Amino acid sequence: MEQVSEQLLKQKTRVSNSLEALEKQPVMSKLALKQLRNTLKSLAKQLHEIEAELLGVLAQRYTHEMTLLCSIPGIGRKTAGQLLLVAGGFARLDNYRQLIALAGLSPREHSSGSSIRGKVRLTKMGGALIRGKLFRCSFAAKKKNAACQALYNRLVAKGKNGKVALIAVCNKLLKQAFAIVKSGVPYQADFAKNPAWIS
Q1: Which one is predicted more confidently, 197 or 84?
Q2: How far is CA 46 from CA 2, 78, 114, 125, 134, in A?
């Protein structure tokens, strides 16, 4: 079902791009415009229905884990469900780096011998759905999640652009998610002072 969601998302993006390009044309077909808008609505509806069904199944299977993940400021039920799906309930993961890699948020650099070509970029090997959800969550997390807010402010103060800082917040959310699910302890703003978090 996750693959179906990914395919629908890709189709929706393609149709949305086509619609945007068509709307910029000086001369356009009203029929084509109408058909693209209808297709976009249909894909959005299908995606919503599949995500809702999937969320229901995940909420039943991973009730405790869902509660733990939703305790993190910035993470809602949809993102919690998507994380559980991507991570297979977190049972197969040994460390948070594996979760970051599954989400496609690991940094990657192009290198040849001793030279490094270009900027360090994200691998984007994971699902686009989880990356998109996490990125949207990062906006709330930088305001409501103490650790994420501190990280964001620190990076921006160092001159990093907003998008880079938000990606760092996404990674921080994934680290918190891994620690919380593995420890079984809900989010606590002062977790660093709590011995239950030391592993």
Answers
A1: 84
A2: 13, 16, 48, 24, 21
Backbone angles phi, psi at 188, to 5 degrees: -135, 130
Q: How many CA atoms lie within 13 A of 47 on its CB side?
A: 17
Q: What is the enclosing helix (H) or strand (E) of 102?
A: helix 96-102
Q: Tell me the domain boundaries of the chain.
A: 1-61, 63-199
184 three-state secondary structure? coil
The pLDDT of residue 197:
41
Q: Which helix (H) or strand (E) element contains residue 108?
A: strand 107-112
Contacts of 148 (CB under 8 A, 6+ apart): 73, 74, 138, 141, 142, 169, 172, 173
pLDDT in tens, 107-148: 654 444 554 454 545 444 457 778 888 999 999 999 999 999
Residue 189 in tokens: 């703003």
Give Cβ neighbours of residue 3 (< 8 Å, ≥ 6 apart).
none
99 close to 77: Cβ distance less than 8 angstroms: no
